[in-house]
Fold each of these.
Amino acid sequence: MKFLFTAAAACAVDTAIKEYIEKQPEDYRKELLGGRVVLRKSHNQGAMLNLMEKRQELVAGFSLGLTAALTCLWAALPADKSFRGLKGGLSLLLAGAYSNVLDRVRRGYVVDYFSLNVGGRLKKVVFNLGDLFIFLGSFLTAVTARSFRRQ
């Protein structure tokens, strides 16, 4: 139950920030942490880095299907302690996936709102918390799943 609560809370936080950002003007920009983090409004109509932005319906359908499949996997995992890491990783991954899929279905795009002002190409990439949840959850899921393979 704690994993479900964690996923719902993480999704809700990201969704609330997206709602706030959507109310800001198009040229909204605010620097945080001494300028290392920049809040700004960006719409991603495709997948990661606007990949397939002209095929929004395909991206939305694929995202929805993959999220549904991962939800089924999450639900099928036993409540056993040995699956805690895997369930935790999938919970984070699903929190970000649900937030982004909700955007795709409701808006036709994903709201991204922060970038890292660290130089190079990375400063041009705009993320949202859901993206970080997906990345961290995927990493934790992969590391945990790998440990099952060794047993």
Amino acid sequence: MKSLNRTNFGSEQWLDYDNQHIWHPYSRIDRLDKNYPVVSARHCSIKLADGRVLVDGMSSWWAVIHGYNHPHIVSAIQEQATKLCHVMFGGFTHQPAIELGKKLIDITPKNLQQVFFSDSGSVSIEVALKMAIQYQKCIGENKKNKFLTIRGGYHGDTFGAMSVCDPVTGMHTLFSNTIQEQIFSDKPKISYNSKWDQISFKLFEKEFNEHKGELAGIVLEPIVQGAGGMWFYHPEFLREVNRLLKNESTLLIIDEIATGFGRTGKMFGVDHSDITPDIMCLGKALTGGHLSLAATLTSNEVSQTISQKGIKTFMHGPTFMANPLACAAALASLNLLDELNWEANVARIEKQLNNELADASNLKPVKDVRVLGAIGVVEVNKDVDLGKAIKFFVNKNVWIRPFKNLIYLMPPYIIGENQLSRLSSALIEAIKNNEI
């Protein structure tokens, strides 16, 4: 094959090479549909190599909450790069990590006092699961090495994370005979805005009581189940789980990777229920989507028990743990949340999505429409033809990437009214014209 000319990026030659050699998420090599070549992105827009500009409705899988290439975050990365791009975290520390740790401890529930940094959301879940199991061993609960969760959940693609994803409707059934078998209960049936019915918690309580002698932890996405189905459940469910664990050694692990940093209208999903988890996982929007970074926070009880009993060492240590560039980006992103009145922006987006997606409820293919914070979901009756839908949306100069039978919007918080209307309109038009 001829050498690739960088000035001609976006040509068929480049795309053919990508198609034959570069694996993309949840895809095959030699795909039928080629990927769209991106040359730049700014604010809420993604520019393709052919000059087309797409309004972004995905925040690059929910991470780019301040828009692309935000000058404040870019400047923080550039400044940090002149001082320290990376250093191993074993034996060393640095100011960006300490500052970020303090900031996260300040804004999360008060009982969370220790921070473990890692590379991605999936790894932060692995860290949480290992923390819970090691904690149980330290207190003599050697049989407690499993986890209870609810169906419809998604926690990542690594092996521990896969084990607590939905075993039937999730993306990991291929590996079901390889991964650890966990305990699953039905997802909460009472939706976010419905009247709470205590009976709906009885099955979960029954599962817990039957298995509590083997449960190291309960793993839950708070209020919003993300890639597992975009279901918004009642805040009382979390309160009941919290009460259930009050006098138990089983730990509550909350996965805030998708819900953290304002996406649901609260800083964190647990804030809808005012509960205090034993372990909290953060990722995605932590750096405003500019670099990969995750964090697992835990309590003094968990951290001190692990540090003072057994081998007295927590057995995990990523090579790029607390990368200074990523920590600097995260600090800049959190500062922007403080400065840009994210709550007003998310409330504005929620109101507009409620108004503009309401029409979808009357369309025959639509099963349900739901909105919470800066999340708008249209659930249809059958799985979307992904290739067909994406082509339609790109031709409408918007970027919407459905998943299974869900067409959803999670735009950056800075998106303007007109841009958001273009996304909503394209979504409804796709359904009306059977372009899904």
Amino acid sequence: MAKRVFVIVLDSFGIGEMPDAAVYGDEGSNTLCACATTPYLDIPNLAKLGLLNIDGALDSPYDVDLAPLEETAGAFARMAEESKGKDTTVGHWEIAGVVSPELFPTYPEGFPPEVIDEFARRTGRGVLCNRPYSGTEVIYDYGRQHLETGDLIVYTSADSVFQIAAHECVVPPEELYGYCRIAREILTGEHGVGRVIARPFVGEWPSFKRTANRQDFSLPPTGTTMLDAIAGAGMDVLAVGKIWDIFAHRGMTDHVHTDDNADGIAKTLAWMDRDFEGLCFTNLVDTDSVYGHRNDAEGYAKAISAFDAKLPELLAKLRDDDLLMITADHGCDPVTPSTDHSREYVFWLTAGKRVRPGANLGTLPTFADMSATILDYLGLAPLEHGTSRLSEIMEV
């Protein structure tokens, strides 16, 4: 029977500060426990797979009512990020086996004139804002001026991103994507940001609303990923959600866009009925983009609980030789004053009919152990980074 691995990333659902968190201004962060400060975190199925039994996952300054279970059904581990940084691109690349030893450039004072002037020249449009900003606040503060002038709203964050917001009635999404491609061509070398992001919005002031037509334009991965290896071996690599963009459209045999977490889960469930051999890689972004960055702990907890409620359906669709792996790419603690990502450990849960129940892999030195394990399971050669944990996870 063909082997299939399903990887689901709960974007930004970290499980506690890493030892170097202070360097990033993230001391005390624990996204899991932050969600548990609300009455809305209900995760019996994630707990059953071992989430609350992971080493250090419940260590935080928050007073929460969470406890490990006596028996668990999955294999579980805590993973440290070997790469520098705490953003989506770096985290996903490391899950896929590529470690980033240097930080991507960030722009706390906005982008320099050589970038902005060239961008304005090539797009033929002026630029508004050009500084770090909340994505919802920037369209509130600059949206009316954008409608009046047609100038593009350019902003960044603590992450290595160049974001362009535009009203869909002024700049249709396809035109905005073209501007993002121009920015991507400009932002190389010393200004090689991790992602250029299209941020379309609609509506009238003050009730502007961002749409699901977001699109990311990432740097290509700097090394061979597990996606490259699996697709190169003639197997399938199916991407659900922004995985397609994070890996710069590389190493995938099929992909599907998603509107939100519910849509991403539904499309993953649909692809579980599909006959293939290889990897299905899903990102569920709402936890990060809709709740984490807005410091909405209640909304974050509800989103995780909604995923947990669908988890039995995902598990029920696993075939005899399937593996389901659930993880995160970084943290985004919604209780700390910062609205940015947080430098946290992430969890790694593995379920399947051949998985050893209660296997505690402890704390692993890199997210890349996931890709090494997946490649080992599919019978493929290892990459430069990561150690396979397959013998610890699987029943003989």
